Amino acid sequence: MASSATALAATTAAPRRAPSRSIAARASARRASSARASSSSSSSSSSIDDAAVAAAYDACAAATRASSATFYFATALMRPTQRERVRAIYAWCRALDEVVDGAETRSPADARRELDAIERRLRALFDDDDGGDGASSPPSSSGSSSSSPETIALADTIRATDGMSPEPFLDMIAGMRSDLPAAVPSSGAFYTLYCYDVAGTVGLMTLPVMGVAEGYGLDDAIPPGVELGIALQLVNVLRDVGEDAKRGRLYLPLDAVHAAGLTAEEILSGAVVNAVDGSVDARAEAHFARARVGIKMLPPAARLPVTAAGEIYGALLNKVRANGYDNITRRAYTTTGEKLRALPGLAARAWFGSRA
Questions:
Q1: Burial letters for 324-350: b for 16+ Cβ neighbours within 10 Å, e otherwise?
Q2: 274 φ/ψ angles, rounded to the nearest 5 degrees
Q3: Cα(52)–Cα(70) distance, rounded to whole angstroms?
């Protein structure tokens, strides 16, 4: 895996458009078509029995818990149906991430072929939902296929949820492709677009599952949802600098690295303890602030878990600060007890924030 500053700064891929409200328009069209395709969807879903679907959702819950205790905790505050569907989406995203991580032990070309196979399966899921033939791809090199738990659960989620669109899923795949090899856009709009691809898209994927409050449409809630995803990604980046560096990867925006008087090589080699100053967490805070306006746009049942996700990740950000930005030798985290003690305050913020 290349680890030089040149490789890390490479941005050869042509820039793509940022997310826009047109996604909501496409989602509305999908809601209209879902009724027409309902008979085809129900007949195709019969090939997998209820027990297999339930087992797939259970596997997605286990994968979520193993991968992110914070996200698992936040989704535990959702209604059961919302919870299992959001965790199915998360597990699908994690499967993508594992393809990229696996590229460290095999060629990027192999990983790209696997991402291509995942994209074909994804398109088949949405074609199936629209009454298409639902043709599946063969198993990938990792063994993942149309019969993998995350694919079965995601297929059920797509069939059962009005307004889901393939665009954010495809955008995430595009973001993962840009991560082969570890080449992250260096600064500005390119870095923000990368964060949208790999994290902001999650807000668009899950929004139809959670729904919106009366008086709002999906297009109103899209911008805050994207902002929250980007904010969470920036916190993850700050928290995981040390772990990523051990794997020869750097996800910090290089303009912030250079502004701190550092080079990529210094961080990757462990020659420094403090990877950046407060510039990256300031960006995260700005995204959090823009995300909070969306709480009132969510239905009451979704406000607490979304508020919890933002606040717990905000607490992680505070711990990075408390560690003196030592994100090389120390990894910030929140304990289960800290999360539980925060619940009353989170509930209050979810309620009063919704009335702002």
A1: ebbbbebbbebeeeebeebeeebeebb
A2: -100, 105
A3: 27
Give the model's pLDDT for residue 143.
Answer: 40
**Averaged over 82-109, what is the pLDDT?**
89
Burial of 14 (0-12, 13-18, 19+ CB in 10 A): exposed
Task: Check whether the bond before 181 is cis (ω within 30° of 0).
Answer: yes
Q: Which two tokens stand for residue 294?
A: 């969306």
Q: Which of 280, 184, 268, 270 is nearest to 238 (CA)?
A: 280
Residue 326 in 3-state DSSP?
strand
Task: Tell me the three state secondary structure of residue 274.
Answer: strand
Rounded (10°) CA dihedral 23, 28, 29, 33: 130
From the CB of residue 165, how many other CB atoms can be counted at a distance below 10 Å? 23
So where are the chain's domains?
A: 5-12+27-354
pLDDT digits (tens, 9 = 90+) for 6-36: 222 222 233 344 444 444 444 444 444 443 3
The candidate with the shortest Cα–Cα distance to 212, out of 289, 296, 304, is: 296
Q: The domain 5-12+27-354: what is its CATH number?
A: 1.10.600.10
Which residue reads 């550092």 in tokens? 262
Backbone torsion region of residue 15, taken as left when φ is above 0, otherwise alpha when ψ lies between -120 and 50, otherwise beta: beta
pLDDT tens sequence across 150-185: 999 999 999 999 999 999 999 999 999 887 765 555
8-state DSSP, 196 = I
Calpha distance 33→18 (Å, rounded): 26
List, in sequence order, every beta strand (DSSP E) within the chain.
Answer: none
